[in-house]
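Hello,

Following up on my earlier ticket. Below are the two sequence lines again, exactly as submitted.
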Amino acid sequence: MLFTFKNKMLQTNLCNIRLNNPTILASGILGVTKESVSKVGKNGAGAVTLKSLCHEERTGFSNPTMFGYNSVFMNAVGLPGQGIDNAIKDFQRLDNLGVPVIGSIYGYRIEQFGEVAKKMASLNPSMIEVDISCPHMDYGKPYYADPELTSKITESVKKNSGKIPVSIKLSPNVYDIKEIAHAAEKAGADAITAINAVSGMVIDIDARKPILTNKTGGITGPALKPIAVRCVYEIHETVKIPIIGTGGVTYGKDAIEMVMAGATAVGIGTGIYYRGIGIFKKVCNEMEQWMKKNKVKNLEEIRGCAHQ
Amino acid sequence: MSYDELCRVEIPKVMEISKVVHEGKNQKSFFFRHYLGCKPGQFVMVWIPGLDEKPMAVSYLSKNEFAFTSNAIGRFTDSLDKLRKGDKVGIRGPYGNCFSTKINACVVGGGVGMASVSTLIDVLTNPVIINGARNKEYLIYLKRYKNKNMLVTTDDGSFGRKGFITDALDELLQNKKNKIKVVYTCGPEIMMKKVFDICQRHKVECEASLERYMACGFGICGKCMINDKILCVDGPIFNSKQLSKLSEFGNTARLKSGKNVTIKEYHAAH
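Thanks for your patience. The regenerated structure is below:
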């Protein structure tokens, strides 16, 4: 068989979590309900990240909260979510959905990160991802831009997450992403997810107003990829923990590029907009095709090879 | 490998309102001189710059014109209600799947739900229409379909037959001489659930146009999930086979935050 799916070629070990393949649904796309998680799993994702949850229910911003054109996709949804307490009732557990689930969390204050992490851990996800980097939070000092705050949040989450590995999701909207990644690793992070969206704005010249109701938002999609690859490359130079390379991955070649920059797994979010929910299988098939053509037996052979 | 997928554009296009038609109490149709390649039952996202963006069913469709019909019941639709000819809104779409267009059809529209089935009525061959509302003031499209086979009901009997739309449907299906093979419906979800149950009892195929809170309209935000279906792309129209598997249909829906609540709480919140 030329395009088998549960093929050993793509098997990935991420913090001792065995993934059938390195593609992971990124946080914020689908991932709101149990059934949507299973649906993405059935469509071939190696793991699924939930939409971020905090200590309270949030409705988020008014629409338009997202739109796309060509290689740019923009969103400012305002972190809507049912809150961790409602989610506990809704999901009950996260270890029986047929695919490894990553619970994404955040808080407003440092101690809330810990509280939400503890509750998320009770659902038994495969991993907890910490969103310190959403570029459009409307309160307080941005945690993502400060190594000391990043370190405090990481410690707070690690103290409350038991044996569940923790990944810190970083923002590209910083002067030096390496020092933030280093701070997270030093504080005990098990992995780094890089990157979140880049801050931007689009104005409709006929309406004479920004399209997003929040005016500014996050740029994702293929336009983000060179920035993401650069960040993953820089982080790989700095830390030893695995990296989930996220940002603009749309085709198998993009995923290969991320791995060459040093990523262990590859996040896919906006890619669903371009290629539908079948993107996970498509990307895996394209990765395998490339690997066979180039006589690469497993991803370990090429991981970080761009650094040599 | 093709990169055509990367040329996808889903961004509001600002258009001028060419005509506003009063349809019923708090109900108006907004027309645009623009070709919209659209099938019966599809919807567009309507943007009032700086305020909000909501899905609206396409209710009139011709070669060079389309319209949607809005019912003023909240912040967004109240603002729409104030717009006049020459004002501008943003439009993107069309989105969603479409109704089948079978013969021997009955179309059941409850209140402004008629808007979601009107472009279907326009292409069907001699459908039986059941158009119902609370009272006379809320009935729409009476003139538009005056030459069609249309049964009108009002809950209070102020116009047409007194009683619920669902009772009229039950009677119609009971009489096998009517040869109804398929029922198309849109209206309040509780009504549609009853319509579906009646169809199941009479072994008649049913297609219903459902609604859930929506942000993107193109299947990625995950807010409009109903069971395992992404309503904006897998729906909004679901057939009997699908409806019978949707345990949330007529029961629960998700708020803007993603919290799962009863249909009653959902409608109170939106």
